[in-house]
Amino acid sequence: MAKIATILRPVFLVHINIPVLLNRLALSIFLICFLSVFPVSQSMASRTLLGKIEKIVGDVRISKGWKNMQPAQDGQKLYSGDKIKTFKDSRLFIRFKDGADFKLGEKTSLRLKHSLLNKGALTKRTNNSELLSGTLWASVDPLKKKAIFVIESPTAGVSIRGTELMAVVDKNVSTFFLKSGTLQVTGGDSLHMLAAGEMTANIGKRRLITPIAIKDRTGLREVQDRIMEATSMDIASSLKKRQNYSEILARFYINYSSYLVDSGNYYDAITLLLMAQSINKNSDRHAEISSLIASVNARFLKAYDEAAYHYQNILDNFPHSPYYEVTLFHYGLLLQAQNDVAGAKRLFTRYLKEFPHGKLSKTIKENFLNKE
What we know:
The chain is 43% helix and 27% strand.
């Protein structure tokens, strides 16, 4: 019996340790999968090679999303998930391996989101980029492209299949100029197919404006030329001339809105004025835009609350504007039309107190304050 016990003892010990070894092995496999395999697979999914940097002018930086931004280098490879930022007087030229070239102007932020496969009759890669702010020139060679290129902004998106375009994101306004090819643009609840030589834009969640022919509008031609210069990689290109195309665009939007009002397109007219107001940097012009928005809302759209909001904006924020005096009168008329007699009287009285010899003082005295 003792011999039998001696013989069986090792077998018995092995039998006892097998579950322990299996448990330890299972735990090790779990830890390896959780701590190593999962992050690697996530990293692989977010690190698709998209292209490389062809040329840098000035200060350009790149971040992988979880690290501090580092200076970009000529020839540096770019992957999905990269965030790119150009600073003052800086520009960047990117060449994508799927057949597109991007040029970024100064103070531009671009995020390379991902490259994936479309599930459909024709399966192609989709290369997505997000233009967060600034100026972008993009060209897709229809003979070399291997993917559909999509550019998204905070308010709109474009699908590029073989074209040359320019995009500007200024605050919550997105503007697109198409030089060649065709372009599908979506924004708000609208979709437009731009033809070569057209532009469109939107603000916030509003619909895109009806495409406008660039060649017919001097202001738009000038803006397009300056955007081209803003994204040029020519180090000797003028930096001063390309600083103020937002102001030119704002003035064009104001002027073109009057044409749309005369044409009965009040929605697009309001959109243009809201865009001009957003990108405008001149305080007197800001008051002018608020006055125009209020007028269109009150006269044509019967949107009295919206009109009142913009009239009040002028009274509260632009007391030294040339539009302040007439706003007191028009706001009073608006309240009078809504049977707010007390509110109208308060504004008319305020007008006479602040502008006793104003050009509208006689009209107010004869028609509104002497009727009691």
